[in-house]
Structures are given as C-alpha cells and as structure tokens.
C-alpha cells in the first residue's frame, strides 16, 4: 500500500475506533440538535438527513482547517529545526496522548480532562457564537453550527492534530484530519438520525474496554512504526 494511503487509512481507522468516545461525547449533542428541529423537518426524511449531513459537513470543514494549520506549523518548525527529530517528537506526543485517551475510555485511567483543557480558551470564545446560531432552522445554519461544533475540546482531535503537525505540510495535515473526520461519520450520522440513541453505547463497559484497548494499540503503533509510514502526502 502506498505510504500516503497507509497514513490516511490509519487516520480513518482512528476515527472509526473512536466510535464509543464520539457516541458518548458528541452523539448526545447531535441528537439534541435533531430533536430541536421543527416537526415538519423531522417528518420529511430527506430534509432531516440534509440537516444531519450539514452539521457534520461543518464539523469536518473545521477539522480540515485545523489540520492545515497544524501541518503548516509543524512544517515551519521542522524547517527551523532538524526535521526528523521535530516530527518524531510530535509523533511520540501523539502516541502518548492516544494511549492515555484509550486507557481513559476503557476506565483504566481517570478522564484525561487535562488534554481537553488545551482548547478551552478558544472554545470559550466560540461557544457564544454557537449559541447564537440556535435554534437551527436552515441548512446554512446547520453548516455554520457544525463548523463551530468542530472546535469543541476533544482529546482525540488533539491527538490527530499532533499527528497532522508531523505529517509534513498543510495539505497533508488537512488530509489527515479529513480522513479522521470521515472515520467518525458513521456514528455521528446515526446519532443524528436516531436522535442521539447511540449515545448510550458509550456507557457499555465491555464496548468501552474494546474501544479503549484499540486506541492504546494504535498509540503504540504510532510510536513504533517507521516515520515514513506515518507521513502524509507532501
């Protein structure tokens, strides 16, 4: 498998493996948004699906922007420092973060709130904007709310941003975050269509342990695999 494809496939798999974390953290949000739509919209299946897709399209757009910024910053740091050591340090940080998040999801570590506090200053500025967009009554409004929602503090997103920063450039960082976001889509779309019904999956201990252990394994692989296998497209 070509290296860029392998890297993006790994990012997609992290998104898919984070299903229970996403269902518990964001599934309730998108479910509440869906329930807040007018009854006429919820009764029209196509319009309803359009709103759910718009929420998630906005969220993925924010991931892509954040990934491009992280990739550009990582490339700039790499240009000023020795490139491989700088990228290796970012990759190791990402691996440790992902392993800690996995252990937390599995219930073997306390919640990793310290990681998610990293984005709180930005979120405090964006949250009032999101509130002003409620209630959502149009697809553009859903897209805008999704774009704000994409900046919600999340340890898994920060892990992926660290990996995007090590990817080698803005384009590769954006592609990494897009692949991750696409991996989260199945559970987010179903949570919206089922009005948050999947959110309770996040409370099933056995499923949480499986998901958490999967993320720990991915963290170990992130640290262990040769750097070339983790580079995105340049």
Automatic annotation (TrEMBL):
Cited InterPro entries: UreH-like_TM_dom
Pfam families (alphabetical): DsbD_2
Domain Urease accessory protein UreH-like transmembrane: 10-221
Transmembrane stretches, start-end: 12-39, 60-83, 89-115, 136-161, 173-195, 207-225
Entry keywords, A to Z: Membrane, Transmembrane, Transmembrane helix
The protein, known as: Urease accessory protein UreH-like transmembrane domain-containing protein
Native source organism of the sequence: Plasticicumulans acidivorans
